Amino acid sequence: MRLELTQADVAERIEVATEVYGRLERGGMLPSVQTLLRLCHELNVSADELLGLSHHTPSPRTSEAPSLPSERPEIRRLLRNLRQLDPSYVKLLGLVAKALLRR
After folding, report:
1. Which SMART domains match (predicted)?
2. Is the pTM of this model over 0.70?
3. Nearest to 64 by CA among 49, 44, 36, 50
4. In Å, how far from its chain's centre is CA 86?
């Protein structure tokens, strides 16, 4: 099952820069043990699978599509952008969102 995650999504989840994750994905560098463990957790695969040492047997978690709204790509992009904003702008956007909900 494809998780429909971008490099930026995975990088954010495993707490590395997008550029670093891109190098990991292309084989340009090896992850630290901590990063490897985060990757295993977020992608729901074993270290053996990520390192190409075995074949993955899907677990129940990977057989289900993400059902939380926060898993939608547009929500993830929005959250990434919000994290980069000044707190006063985040507060302002919160007020705008509340106003839109009242419509």
Report:
1. HTH_XRE
2. no
3. 44
4. 22
Residue 71 burial (C-beta neighbours within 10 Å; 0-12, 13-18, 19+):
middle
Residues 53 and 14 in one domain: yes
What range does the domain containing 78 cover? 66-103
Local structure of residue 67 (DSSP, 8 states): -
* N-to-C CA span, the chain: 38
Q: How far apart are CA 85 and CA 96, in angstroms?
A: 15
Residues 57 and 12 in one domain: yes
How far is 24 from 26, CA to CA, in rounded Å? 6
Joined tokens for residue 94: 């919160």
Sequence-ordered alpha helix ranges (H) in 1-103: 7-14, 18-26, 33-43, 47-50, 73-84, 87-102
